[in-house]
Amino acid sequence: MGHKRILGKTTDFITGREITDTDDECYRQKLARFLVEVKGYEKGDIGPKRRIEMQIEGKRVLSMVDFVVSVEGRPFMVIKYGPGSLVTRERPALAAARVLEDYQIPLTVVTNGEDAEILDTVSGNVLSTGIEAITDKASALEVLRKITPDRLSAKQVEAEKRILSAYDYLEHDLECDADWCETESE
Fold it and tell me: What residues contact 158, with CB distance under 8 A and at least 6 apart?
């Protein structure tokens, strides 16, 4: 999974669970606070560490997104964090937003904790940039009321899963640390 600096333990802002504190986790926690304190979402609107499990060529593959943000119980935005270049995060984040639900989640956000790109999941186009440009709850509700969920064919879903697994390949149980791959339901 790469190298990361362990800073000790911290309390997850959304779940209240004690988790391992790393440089990356500091950015995730800052983003969670921003979504609640600045963008107006409730903690209950934010689903952290959403797991995507797939079978690709006989192997069980795991991918994760950092947050799925819902409005009135309906997933509206996928947020995928990763250090470094945002452009390299776009395609796997879009694939995740296209396969997490039975419809394409409307917005995809890629962020390195300092900057962000907000993408239209259906087209893949960048709508805006910057952390401040992340859609607030009131605007999200307005958008959800105006759109019809866009669904992919089974063939398209499989293609998106292959793309996702090519970028985010983690063979389940081999490369997954407990804090990141463990979900609230476990």
Answer: none
Tokens of 165: 């697994």
β-strands 74-81, 107-111 pairing = parallel
User: CA–CA separation, 166 vs 170, rounded Å?
Assistant: 10
Residue 138 lies in a domain: yes
| Integer angstrom CA distances of residue 94 from 87, 91, 139 | 11, 5, 21
CATH code for the domain in which residue 26 is found: 3.90.1570.30
- For the chain (length 186 residues), average pLDDT per consecutive 10? 65 88 89 97 95 82 91 95 88 95 95 96 96 96 88 92 77 46 45
Q: What is the dihedral of CA 77, 82, 88, 93, to 10 degrees?
A: -30
Question: What is the total count of domains within the chain?
Answer: 1
Domain membership flag for residue 172? yes
- 177/94 Cα distance (integer angstroms): 24
Residue 182: inside a domain: no
Domain hosting residue 99, numbered range? 6-176
User: What is the rounded CA–CA span in Å between residue 74 and residue 71?
Assistant: 5
Contact 98/119 with Cβ under 8 angstroms? Answer: no
C-alpha separations of 81 from 13, 35, 53, 122, 127 in Å: 16, 14, 18, 20, 18
In a domain, 186, yes or no: no
